[in-house]
Design goal:
- With 179 residues, the protein is mostly helical.
- The chain has 2 domains: 58 residues, Homeodomain-like (Arc Repressor Mutant, subunit A, Orthogonal Bundle); 104 residues, no CATH class.
- It has 9 helices and no strands.
- Helix 4 packs across helix 7 and helix 7 packs across helix 8.
- The longest helix is centred in the C-terminal third of the chain and has 25 residues.
């Protein structure tokens, strides 16, 4: 996925994203073709593939653009579980409609990727783990957050950020098992 600063490429990304949002108002994402997306945006297929490669990547780009919960580089090593759970619940609450659409369209892999990228940036906050164990923990926690989000969205029409923070903290802290 393109991450440079070329103004023409950034404009093309924006146009494709706008076209995607318009088309998603009309039909499900699985029914939107790359040709249709390019036609609506006025961007060539070659440019689409150069910028995104796949429809999943344009969805990741959209999620990335609206994600205001990413920690600053200086915050990462000091991140606590409570901070991570609060950011997670804020992200889900703020993007509830888009996340619901992803889940309804069986695109949970896109959601998992978003959580994995976020958890990867916080790996240094994990304590008492070797590097290989950090990767396992990142995968495990990302999958758990993905499934928690799916279950929560299926059972709630509107998000309750405090409830989601409390629930994610309770589960991820490990305090749900007898000792």
């Amino acid at each position: 996925m393109y991450q440079g600063r070329n103004p023409k490429a950034l404009t093309s990304q924006r146009l494709l994203l706008e076209a995607l949002n318009e088309l998603m108002d009309e039909k499900e994402i699985k029914d939107i073709s790359v040709s249709e997306l390019c036609s609506r945006s006025g961007v060539s297929r070659q440019t689409f593939y150069s910028l995104f490669g796949t429809k999943d990547n344009i969805l990741l780009y959209q999620l990335d653009q609206i994600n205001d919960t990413k920690p600053e580089h200086t915050e990462i090593s000091a991140m606590k579980l409570s901070d991570m759970c609060e950011r997670f619940s804020r992200y889900v609450s703020s993007n509830y409609t888009l996340l619901s659409m992803l889940i309804e369209n069986q695109l949970s892999e896109v959601l998992f990727t978003q959580f994995y990228q976020a958890m990867s940036s916080c790996r240094q906050s994990f304590v008492d783990l070797e590097e290989e164990e950090r990767e396992y923990a990142t995968q495990f926690m990302s999958a758990g957050l993905c499934r928690l989000t799916q279950k929560y969205i299926h059972e709630h029409e509107t998000p309750d950020q405090d409830e989601l923070t409390r629930l994610s903290y309770k589960i991820m802290s490990g305090n749900i098992y007898r000792r």
